[in-house]
Amino acid sequence: MRIENTKRKQRPSPKDLAVFLAVVRKGSFAKAAEEVGQSPAFVSKRIGILEANLLTKLFHRSTRQVSLTDDGERVQRWAIRILEDLDNMIDEISQAQHVPRGSLHLCSTFGLGRALVAPAIAKLAREYPELEVRLDIFDREVDLIQEGFDMEIRVGEDLPQQHICKKLKSNNRVLCASPEYLKKNGSPKNLEELQQHKCLLLRERNAPFGIWKLQRNGKPSSVSVHGELSSNHGEIIVRWAKSGHGIAMRSMWDIEASLRTGELVQVLPEYAQSANIWAIYPTRLSRSAKLRVCVDFLQHNLSPS
pTM of the prediction? Predict the structure, then answer.
């Protein structure tokens, strides 16, 4: 639907195109407002200005959702291209000046994001003040392209084939429990004996629930475990383990300090599960100077706060 009898006022601004793409990603003015850190009224106003400047209607609006018009789909393609070109221009200039600048939108999981990524990003911002970094954390599958992220920092070996994956830090998951639990229930002497113990189960992404896969001297093994307590949050699992509720499998970066203090004790230390930390980003950003600086920085500064 074309907006008639309206004189185009000015060229669309990159900021309005960014707001428009946020609405497209979120399918909602209110959710887009949360993403850009503004009010729904602000988003509605900017979309109205964009429509007036382009002399067209971009969205079909209803009380429950918004969807793109035919012209809206055309604008979406151009907006993505325009904003990427602007980013590439800034990136090229900053690379020539050896001063990385521009915006980076990163994401990670709750535990990893809070414990390792956030402190490293704070250091990155101090060292490169021309960079504007946003970090979102959650525990769900992420579509980097559709959701507009530049990079994901992830734990584990289930890596996407369509993106570039660069290892930031070596890491293993190990078995652990509190000294109190082991004193009361004994220590398992092999994987099969784990079935006789209370195990603290983590529900995460696509990992099979109740199946622990580990390696011993490079040889893979798996065991079916059970327990009364489970959670989708690793910090809760660690708290339960420290309180003597059972045996957990957690990343070394998460429990290393607790192992040193003796709050937790490693169980079956000859077994471990590979769970390296990776930077994942779209191929189109492979030459990005600011992203390269961020990845290199994380490789050297990713450590517990």
Answer: 0.69
What is the spatial distance between Cα 35 and Cα 107, in angstroms, rounded to a whole number? Answer: 13
CATH 3.40.190.290 positions along the chain are 172-274
- For domain 99-170+277-301, the CATH superfamily is Periplasmic binding protein-like II (3.40.190.10)
Can you tell me the distance from the alpha carbon of 238 to that of 264, in angstroms, rounded to the nearest whole number?
9
Q: In this predicted structure, what is the pLDDT of residue 11? A: 86
DSSP assignment letter at 114: I
Q: Which helix (H) or strand (E) holds 75?
A: helix 70-97
3-state secondary structure of 60: strand
State the distance between the two ends of the chain, measured CA to CA, in whole angstroms. 54
Amino acid sitting at position 226: H
Residue ranges, CATH 1.10.10.10, the chain: 14-82
pLDDT tens track for 81-121: 888 888 778 777 766 456 788 889 999 998 899 999 999 99
Q: Is the pLDDT of residue 258 over 80?
A: yes
14-82 placed in CATH 1.10.10.10: yes
Q: Coil, strand, or helix at residue 246?
A: coil
Q: Which residue has the tokens 């994987």?
A: 191
Q: How far apart are CA 92 and CA 288, in angstroms?
A: 8
32: tokens are: 């887009």
Query: Which pLDDT value is given to residue 218?
Result: 85
Q: Provide CB contacts within 8 A for 184, sequence distance 6+.
A: 244
* Both structure tokens of 299: 């490789």
Measure the CA dihedral 69/71/73/76, to 10°.
-120
Contact partners, residue 102, CB within 8 Å, separation at least 6: 87, 90, 91, 94, 130, 131, 132, 290
Type of residue found at 234: G
Encoded tokens for 136: 């979102």
Residue limits of CATH 3.40.190.10 in the chain: 99-170+277-301
